[in-house]
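Attaching the record inline, Q. Sequence:
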Amino acid sequence: MKYSRVLLKLSGEALMGNQQYGIDPERLNDYAEEIAEASKQAQIAIVIGGGNIFRGLQGASKGMDRIQGDYMGMLATVINSMALQSTLQSKGVKTALLSGVYIDRIADSMSSAKAIKLLEEGNVVIIGGGSGNPFFTTDTASALRAVEVRADIILKGTRVDGIYTADPEKDPSATKFDHITYDEAYNKNLKVMDLTAFTLCKENNMPMYVFDMNTKGNLLKVLNGEQIGTLVTK
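Structure, as predicted:
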């Protein structure tokens, strides 16, 4: 096994499946099965976005207060996290839910020591609520949480099999990178993560692997070190 502890970043939009909004039960189940199998091989912490339910920036663009909108987005990530937790638990996977936003009765507050202890006890640890602060994306939250739990790497599960010179869904001539540095990705304006997330990863020497999460078996392949996506390093 190439990695023993990972931070898996999933987008909220991915949970929509073929729907226009919300959570697709079939996609949620597929992800849970992948994670359940992979959790037998490695310690897994997870951060999920909330874009399938609400995005703070979208609210702000329509006149909503940005801070309120961002907190709504954080709550959306908690909803997604709860859905994944419930599905994993139905498959017999030990799962703990922590949150960057204090939500008594639903999730314990996130702390580095608590998350690491839960991982070492064999739990899949889902961390909702973003970073707990407005103006930060879940990409930045995933970088922060990866550093906090001392993960070996961030695994960014997307619907594309890596990082390309352009959007492969729009430009058929786009070519894929097997390996790229954070500086190169930023200078080439490749929309992988935002600058704050890049900076956190780079300063803490946290590598990231971008891969297609929607293909069955890929998560386990990445854990085993198979080259199916794009590695981003300092």
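The longest helix spans residues 66-90. Residues 159 and 176 are 14 Å apart (CA to CA).

More tomorrow.
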